[in-house]
Inverse folding.
């Protein structure tokens, strides 16, 4: 019960990330939101694994953590630099 | 045998959730990308770490506890390196960190371009 | 060569034990570990001293805890007044190579600092809340990291060391 309640709280917290995803002035801010989503997803998966006694979910969380690392590296080395070259404009550090 | 660890686990999970909330608050409120990176790499990772540690305290076996800690170690390494990658690419793309001059109280929007 | 293989075997076996949930599947595990140990490329991590690393772990965790507490306190303040600044940390004692990459990642964990750029002569660091002892703390961290690595290896190791340094440079270029 406790685990499920905490997991629900973390899911609620994800609304924050979605807000940042929609508003974030630069694409890097959106990437940060995506990273937050993956961190929360890992926490929720682990909590559910303990709460529901489903140890297989821990493996899923492990996989999500691996994919999150690859996603960040991919974003930096490929996507962002390509985006930057295409637009040719300088993104500014936005004031919130 | 390890029953006494369970309340400690609950406390750690609650503390970890607190750090998660604080990190998200930072992600909303901090003024620029670099400050938000601080919030994400430090507070959110610590939150995840405390949750993992709490769950490891309640895990049925030692191997299961080790797996929880493995998830945390992976996340710690990934986000720490990822933060540097994002920050250095942002700098290379011309995003300037907002800095405060030692004398003035107002934040400068951006440093003068060299 | 056998010593190096054994040094790789142990952490991999530990990893398998954790992943497989108690090590019930060693029939699959032992071949997988052996193949991984043989096929793993030479990396900078092989020059870490395991015991020193073990002693360093609590220090790193303590730093991470303090860093998280500071950022959380800053984020929860009613009006966050950040005085972010960029400072340069010249390298003191850490040689070129994997140690610097480790240091750059660790800087992200200690309170209030974030690595912006890694160059051959210095480390550019973004500071969230300037503190008079931040530079001193960086120097302390650097000496600690330098102690983790073996230096002045004799004879046969020289070749592999050169390779390592090249690797480090490449990774550095990637980090830009």
């Amino acid at each position: 019960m406790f685990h499920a309640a905490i997991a629900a709280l973390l899911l609620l917290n994800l609304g924050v990330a979605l807000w940042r995803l929609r508003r974030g002035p630069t694409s890097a801010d959106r990437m940060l939101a995506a990273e937050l989503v993956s961190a929360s997803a890992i926490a929720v998966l682990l909590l559910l694994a303990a709460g529901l006694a489903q140890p297989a979910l821990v493996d899923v969380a492990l996989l999500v953590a691996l994919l999150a690392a690859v996603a960040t590296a991919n974003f930096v080395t490929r996507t962002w630099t390509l985006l930057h070259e295409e637009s040719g404009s300088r993104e500014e550090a936005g004031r919130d | 045998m390890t029953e006494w660890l369970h309340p400690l686990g609950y406390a750690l999970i609650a503390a970890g959730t607190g750090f998660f909330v604080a990190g998200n608050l930072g992600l909303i409120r901090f003024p620029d990308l670099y400050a938000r990176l601080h919030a994400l790499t430090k507070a959110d990772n610590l939150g995840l770490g405390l949750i993992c540690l709490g769950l490891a305290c309640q895990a049925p076996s030692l191997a299961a506890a080790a797996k929880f800690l493995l998830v945390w170690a992976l996340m710690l390494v990934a986000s720490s390196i990822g933060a540097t990658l994002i920050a250095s690419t942002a700098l290379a793309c011309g995003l300037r960190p907002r800095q405060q001059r030692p004398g003035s109280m107002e934040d400068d929007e951006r440093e003068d371009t060299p | 060569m056998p010593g190096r293989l054994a040094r790789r075997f142990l952490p991999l076996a530990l990893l398998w034990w954790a992943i497989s949930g108690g090590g019930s599947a060693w029939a699959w595990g032992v071949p997988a570990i052996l193949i991984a140990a043989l096929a793993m490329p030479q990396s900078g991590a092989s020059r870490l001293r395991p015991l020193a690393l073990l002693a360093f772990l609590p220090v790193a965790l303590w730093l991470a805890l303090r860093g998280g507490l500071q950022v959380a306190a800053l984020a929860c303040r009613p009006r966050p007044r950040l005085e972010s600044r960029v400072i340069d940390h010249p390298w003191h004692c850490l040689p070129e190579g994997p140690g610097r990459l480790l240091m750059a990642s660790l800087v992200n964990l200690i309170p209030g600092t974030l690595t912006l750029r890694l160059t051959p002569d210095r480390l550019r660091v973004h500071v969230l809340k300037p503190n008079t002892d931040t530079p001193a703390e960086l120097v302390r961290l650097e000496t600690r990291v330098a102690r983790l690595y073996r230096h002045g290896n004799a004879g046969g190791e020289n070749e592999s060391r050169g390779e390592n340094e090249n690797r480090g440079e490449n990774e550095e270029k990637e980090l830009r």
